[in-house]
Structures are given as C-alpha cells and as structure tokens.
Known about the structure:
The structure is a homotetramer of 99-residue chains.
Chain A: H1 15-37, H2 42-77, H3 81-97
Helix pairs in contact in A: 1-2, 2-3
Amino acid sequence: MTTPSTPTRGYTASKDQLLARLRxxxxxxxxxxxxxxxxxYCIDVLTQISAIQAALDKVALGLLDGHAxxxxxxxxxxxxxxxxxxxxxxxxxxxxxxG
Amino acid sequence: MTTPSTPTRGYTASKDQLLARLRxxxxxxxxxxxxxxxxxYCIDVLTQISAIQAALDKVALGLLDGHAxxxxxxxxxxxxxxxxxxxxxxxxxxxxxxG
Amino acid sequence: MTTPSTPTRGYTASKDQLLARLRxxxxxxxxxxxxxxxxxYCIDVLTQISAIQAALDKVALGLLDGHAxxxxxxxxxxxxxxxxxxxxxxxxxxxxxxG
Amino acid sequence: MTTPSTPTRGYTASKDQLLARLRxxxxxxxxxxxxxxxxxYCIDVLTQISAIQAALDKVALGLLDGHAxxxxxxxxxxxxxxxxxxxxxxxxxxxxxxG
Lengths: 99, 99, 99, 99
C-alpha cells in the first residue's frame, strides 16, 4: 500500500534541509534584532516573530517525523518502544506549551 | 511484546479517564457560557478558556500516546508504519497550530 | 465614548455571538465524548480537538478585543491603564502557553 | 535606563533587554544547527527548539506590552484606538497560531 521507494512526503526533511531552514531562521532572528534596534513598529516586529516561530515549528515537525519513522522503529526492535513513545509525547507536550 | 503490567506513566490514559476528562471539559464550557451571560470580567473568562485548552491538550496527548503505543505498532505489523507516522505528524501539526 | 457607527471588524464579537460560539463548542465536546465512547480512530478525534481549540481561540480573541476596545479605555479614564495592560498581557501569555 | 517611577513589572522590557534576549535566541539557533550537524538525538534538539519558542514568546510579550502601554495610548490620543486594537488582536492571533 505504501511505496517501497520511501516517498519523502509531508514533514520528512533531510539533514541538509533542516540545516538550511535553521540558517534561514538565524538570519530572521538577526533581522528582528535590526528592526528592534531601528525602533521599527512593534506590530511589524511581532509579525516577523510569528514567522520565525512557524519556521521553527516546521523544523520541529521534521525532526519528530524522523523520530517517528526511524528512531522509534529501531527502538521497537530493541524493546524500547514504550520508552521512546513516552519521550516523544513529552517532546510534543513541550512543543504544544512552547517550553 | 510490551510489559504485561503496563506501567501507565506519562500521558497514557484509559478510555474511562479520557471520557471523565471530556465530561469535565463540557462542564467547564458551560461554566464559561454562564460567566459570559452574567457579564463577568473578561480577564476571568479568558483564564477559564486557557484552563479548558490545557485540559483539551491533555486529552489530545493521551490520545496521541495511545496512537504511538498501540495503533502505530499494529500499523507497523501491517506495513503501514510510514502512512501512520505521516498521519500522526499531521495531527501534531494541527495541534501545534490549533486547527 | 465609542464611535457610534462601530465598524464591527476583525475579532469584535457581541455577547450573543460569543454565547452562540460557546454553545457550539459545548456540542463539539459532546461529539468528541461520543467518538471516544465509540472507539473511533484516534486521529479523527484529534482533528476534532484541534477544531475546538481553534473555536476557543476565536472566543478568546473576541473577549480580548472587547477588553482592548472597551475595558482598557474605561480603565485609562480611571488611571488604571498600566494595571489593565498588565492583566491583558498575563491573559495573552496564558493563551499562548494554553494554561 | 527605565523610568524610575514606573513599576516595571510583568512583561515590560526595555529595548536593551529585548536586544539581549534576541542575541541569546540567535546563539540558541546556532547551537541547534550544531546539534543537527553532529546528529545529536532528535529529542534533545526538540527540547532546545521548545526553549527558543519560549524565549521568542517572551520577546513577543515584551513588545505587545509596550504596544499596549505606549503605542495604544498615543493612538487613542490621535483617535486611532480602534485601529490599533484591531492591529494588536491580529498580532495576538498570529502568535497564538504561530504564523
């Protein structure tokens, strides 16, 4: 039912893609520093912060997806499925509450 | 495959626990309707809304935990691991963005 | 005190609209109880929970909007502007962290 | 540096404090890049992402607080109170949905 060639859909992200996204986030944070430094209108700064948070959520989902697809499968093979599901739920809870 | 005593830690919740939490949430929503109807101070109503959202997040984490521990294991046995990981990620993304 | 035409844009909501939304949320929570009771697929239940969270966010924004437009203006007239801004920020912080 | 009378409570933050927080966030993002590059355990990376989201939320609340205390007061004096309340609600909505 699923294709054997691993269709990299949805939130799946390669290490290079994750790094590229993080570098872009780093640049966005520097952009906000500049905006604050130049006393730009606070609502515009807030819009940029929301954009960064959305980008970080995407990175987080890419990592979680890798965890669910790979780490958890290896963990299951080693009898650590419950432990790893618990870890993943704690991570999701922190993401939902943001820290 | 899993320990027979099942150490119900973390976010694991039984069907009865989930239903009890949802009934409590239903009561909390009715409580907010009353507060709005009686023109109570908006900040107090907002505090109650945050409490309901936290309770619903807990229900969601309980369901996700069951999904990660049970459905995904069954799915893996049927060769649907990738499909189910994708479904779970989409659900987590919706919870993070709240709808 | 407020403009007589009141351009009801954005998140502004009347008491009747808020109550109607809350009654709908109450029905949605009951719907989820039924889904859990009938052992419906967890991912479908999670989708419904996200829909409720979005609906509650909309109620919260309607209340915050009223607070910013009316309560804060009255508070400012009574010299309580800082106190009320502080209360509002605490409410926003709780909504962002969901409780 | 801040006005001596103003009880700088809650989320109020000076420009210097905001800039210091943003520089710290920038360093945290670089730390995550390193973690991903070194193939560190995904759950640990996710914990760091949640810490950044919490730090950005704090920056956002500091900016919103300034908006509510200062910009909105000036706006009210210029008859733009409704417009500015609408802008602030849209910003809060984006923060709640994260982008």
